[in-house]
Specification:
With about 400 residues, the protein is α+β, with helices and mostly antiparallel strands. The protein has helices spanning about 10-20, 75-80, 95-100, 105-110, 120, 125-130, 155-160, 195-205, 235-250, 260-275, 295-305, 330-340, 355-360, 365-380, and strands at about 1-5, 25-30, 45-50, 55-60, 65-70, 85, 130-135, 140-145, 170-175, 180, 185-190, 215-220, 230-235, 260, 285-290, 310-315, 320-325, 345-350. The radius of gyration is 21 Å and the shape is globular.
Length: about 400
């Protein structure tokens, strides 16, 4: 299989034009750390962003950073950290979960709309993404967005590219808004709550004025011998003290929580963010299920009655990470049936190739939405060169 690794945008555009002339399907990658997400590849060559590196813009006072798509994410994060800033949405590192190597890239954060526990407060990656440059399926260089947030008239290509998994264009540069690192971070840890009570507690905290930046529940066996319910608060030291005290009073019917800070607290949230509980499990498929937070426990219980598995909750119960045997359909029928009743969507994040080829990996679309999806794909990639079939068969 041929592999292309351009070092410039014009070179990348030339590769795409030549591939279009040959009708040569291309697998678009950064460092290939998420290669196992999506349907199995249906391509003839690889086009990698690894040669497109370097920070192109950083203005700390404006809280904006831009870098070429192949720039290692860690390099950008180190630069931001040196100035007391961060990417707001806490991108996850799923290398252990996916059993891949290499350095996650800045462009892949946008392509996968990668966001972690802070999403409940700061939004997803797409909410901070303000500019993209990419090569479309005709080999044309497209620029959309810029250095400031603004209203958009017509098709918002910046948001469209976020979470498109390389199916619409080859990203060459992305621009994000950033935020200051908070002075202090503390986590309230409640022990012993069952899942329904935990979601009730998380909902009460999230509905309060005390601004959580993380809200997760780890059932027994995931967190250790007893369940743990986690609530993160960040800000100035005095404000964290005040909010922690106010939350203790508000939630006293759920017990008295411990206050965890420093590396111990950071490790708790890395575990939630990176799905560490399921990283070492052999023979298990891993699902990412989104639903209304108040329905999270009911969805998990309903799936659990149909199929054995292990799960935990993020986003106040709105995100369920589920591990189940990969045999058969890896639980797809039970999961889709539950979500048809309760609402939401699910993505099969990890499973063997035969399973990913046999069951829908991303949430199935209604026929009207599929027509829109095919139309957008045709407009940006008329010959279907980019990651064909990765998200949906035939698209």
């Amino acid at each position: 299989m041929r592999s292309y690794e351009p070092t410039g945008e014009d070179e990348a555009a030339g590769v795409v034009r030549e591939a279009a002339g040959r009708s040569e399907p291309l697998r678009l990658v950064g460092a290939d750390t998420k290669a196992g997400i999506g349907r199995p590849a249906q391509d003839a060559a690889t086009l990698s962003a690894r040669g497109l590196t370097g920070v192109t813009l950083y203005e700390p006072a404006e809280m904006v950073v831009a870098a070429r798509a192949g720039t290692p994410l860690a390099e950008v994060q180190a630069l931001l950290n040196g100035r007391g800033q961060m990417l707001p949405f806490e991108p996850a590192d799923h290398r252990r979960l996916m059993r891949t190597a290499g350095e996650p890239t800045f462009g892949a954060v946008a392509a996968a709309n990668n966001a972690g526990p802070r999403r409940i407060n700061a939004g997803a990656a797409r909410d901070s993404l303000i500019g993209v440059r990419f090569v479309n399926g005709r080999g044309e260089v497209i620029k959309s967005g810029g250095r400031v947030m603004k209203n958009v008239t017509g098709l918002d290509l910046v948001k469209l590219m976020a979470g498109s998994w390389g199916t619409l264009g080859f990203l060459t540069e992305v621009t994000f808004k950033v935020l200051p690192v908070q002075e202090r971070t503390a986590t309230l840890v409640f022990g012993g709550l069952d899942e329904a009570r935990a979601v009730e507690a998380l909902s009460a905290a999230l509905g309060s004025p005390f601004e959580l930046t993380g809200a997760a529940h780890l059932p027994a066996g995931i967190a250790g011998p007893e369940p743990r319910t986690l609530m993160r608060i960040e800000g100035f030291a005095g404000a964290v003290d005040y909010r922690a005290g106010a939350l203790r009073r508000l939630l006293r019917r759920f017990g008295q929580p411990d206050l965890v800070e420093g590396e111990a607290g950071a490790a708790l949230w890395r575990g939630v963010r990176d799905v560490e509980a399921f990283c070492e499990a052999d023979g298990e498929a891993v699902w990412r299920i989104s639903t209304a937070p108040v329905k999270g426990a009911a969805v998990a219980a309903e799936i659990g009655r149909a199929r054995a598995g292990r799960w935990y909750y993020d986003w106040g119960g709105g995100l369920i990470w589920l591990a189940t045997a990969s045999a058969g359909d890896a639980g797809a029928a039970a999961i889709r049936a539950s979500l048809a009743t309760h609402g939401g969507h699910a993505t099969l994040v990890r499973a063997p190739d035969p399973v990913r080829a046999a069951v829908p990996v991303f949430q199935p679309l209604t026929e009207p939405l599929m027509r829109v999806t095919r139309g957008i794909k045709a407009a940006h990639d008329p010959k279907g060169l980019f990651n064909p079939g990765r998200m949906y068969a035939g698209v």
